[in-house]
Predict the structure.
Amino acid sequence: MTALWTSDEVSKALSPVTAVAPFMADGVTFDSRAVGKGDLFFALGGETTDGHGFVADALARGAAAAVVSRDVEGARGTLIRVPDTMKALVDLGRAGRRRSKARIASVTGSVGKTSTKDALRAMLSAQAPTSASVASYNNHVGVPISLTRLPREAHYGVFEIGMNHPGEIEPLARQVEAHVGVITNVGAVHIGHMGSEEAIADEKGCLFAGMAEGAAAVLNRDSRHYDRLAGHARRFGVSRIVGFGRSEAAEARLLACDLQDSGSDVAALIHGRRIEYRLGAAGEHWALNSVAALAVVEALGADVAIAAATLAKVKASPGRGARRMLKFGAGAIELLDESYNANPVSVRAMLAVLSRTEPKPGGRRVLALGDMRELGEGADADAYHAGLADAVATSGAAQVFLCGSHMQALWQCLAPAQRGVHRPDSASLAGEVATALRAGDVIAVKGSLGSKMKIVVDAIVAASGGEVGL
Ligand SMILES: Nc1ncnc2c1ncn2[C@@H]1O[C@H](COP(=O)(O)OP(=O)(O)OP(=O)(O)O)[C@@H](O)[C@H]1O
Ligand SMILES: [Mg+2]
């Protein structure tokens, strides 16, 4: 098998200022801690650190070569000198995309990008060699690095594209040049930087910029922004529009889902064809992600039935709804770990899951929530937090533990009987949650990454007698 990148290909794509000694690279990275033997290392300038400080180390750890924009001391190995390493990364990503014959999907949306991308990875790799972005590599570095990692022999490629600020999606979409683009949904996420949901929809609609010939747009038919997004697709010359959702007008339609703690049994109608499948991740939001993914599979030209059959193996990942059963006292507790991120859309999805999760005899539903970040400051952010009150009430949570300054607004709205405690941060909340739990409880923990609710998860695990297994 040919290497991921040869020195000739890299030279051609990057036009380095001096000639490059021959090498073969099997991987590409910018993180010196993750450098493996044979990787091509990009020395990128970060906000706090400069990758040039790690070049010598990366080469010592076996990197095939390093892309740099200035001299580095003590570097033993092949250096590729370019004026701007970030631009060089984008150039190599473009070269990776241009040489590829793969069918490419791009995924964006306010929530569910990684979930949908990972479902697509499972569905497509069951059929042919597939490459997908790792984790949430969805920004100005993550997208081009993912493109440089697209193996030349891949049949399918799946790329996550994200944004925090206006104008971020279009250049990334133009790098990816997808055949199929899916917008999972539009909600009040990062609204602090964006102003309104309409502005967020307009930004997401830029996913369709620079798409390949004959491209398709997969859109949430249930969203009030559907027409707006379809307009953006057409504006960028994408004429095939496929809707997914519960709506009768959706081409990929969720007909029914029997929701259980361990997953769901789903029936869907994909372009008029009824299919039934088991989905290994719990919650209606996951059932909707799965029909969106099936619509993408169909639009890519892959096999929908084979794809659906792989969904049984798809599970929520740690911090995004993964469930753990832990020994506790004379029994066990069930932990729903959603500590990786939170916004009004995903907190509601989690509360819906909690409301359907039955505690064991003697147990209760317990909830620990940290601040949702990126909703802006002041009154608006407080209002989004207080706005969760109805969903918290219907979740059936017997006790609610909150932390963070914005959660104070939700605290005011809780029924007195539901109130656990409110604390300024997760470190001061963690012990109180762990002590309040008893055998039989279901405990759900959620907050934005910046709210550090993993500290609460860790305290619960530490107070338990370890994993029981589901
Ligand atoms: N369709 C959906 N609707 C509502 N919530 C969802 C949906 N899909 C996933 N979630 C929830 O949202 C959270 C984040 O999911 P995921 O990591 O897939 O989102 P993301 O869009 O990739 O986030 P990020 O912007 O951090 O990369 C998880 O807790 C998950 O349970
Ligand atoms: Mg993500």
About this structure: The chain has three domains: 5-83, 100-313, 322-463. Residues 109, 111-115, 136, 138, 162, 184-185, 285, 288-289, 320-321, 338, 341, 345-346, 349 surround adenosine-5'-triphosphate (ligand 1) (CB under 6 Å). The domain at 322-463 is CATH 3.90.190.20 (Protein-Tyrosine Phosphatase; Chain A). The first strand starts at residue 5 and ends at 6.
